[in-house]
Amino acid sequence: MDWLLYADRSRFEQVPKGRFYVLEGRMKIEDKEVIGWDWHIFLETSDFDVAWDAVPRPGIVVTREELDHDPVLRPYLEDWRAGNDDVRQRFLGSSED
After folding, report:
1. What span, in angstroms and rounded, lies between the C-alpha atoms of 22 and 50?
2. Does the reported pTM lie above 0.85?
3. Which helix (H) or strand (E) holds 23?
4. Largest CB tally within 10 Å, which of 10, 11, 54, 95?
5. What is the DSSP letter of 2?
6. CA atoms of 24 and 42, how far apart (whole Å)
7. pLDDT digit string (tens) for the chain, length 97 residues
8. Cis, peptide link before residue 58, omega less than 30° from 0
């Protein structure tokens, strides 16, 4: 999965309509590869600008369609919808490696 693609607002030629999800987590580069862990959704909105204004660093904004079609991201939506915040709690309680 290319995490950096989802962090690039310019990938949209026009403002999409629908739901946007802001994810935060941990990220580092090892051997020229981006590694991510403890990722979770922390905001859902229908406002494109609100989503991008809220995105942390590191963080990404994805559309509902992107979540539905990306096998790496799909479980984050399932956890969000189920109210499962185990990963968020782990993120908040862990120190950066």
Report:
1. 10
2. no
3. strand 20-30
4. 54
5. -
6. 7
7. 666 777 888 888 899 899 999 998 887 888 887 777 888 898 999 999 999 999 888 788 999 999 899 888 888 888 888 888 787 777 777 655 4
8. yes
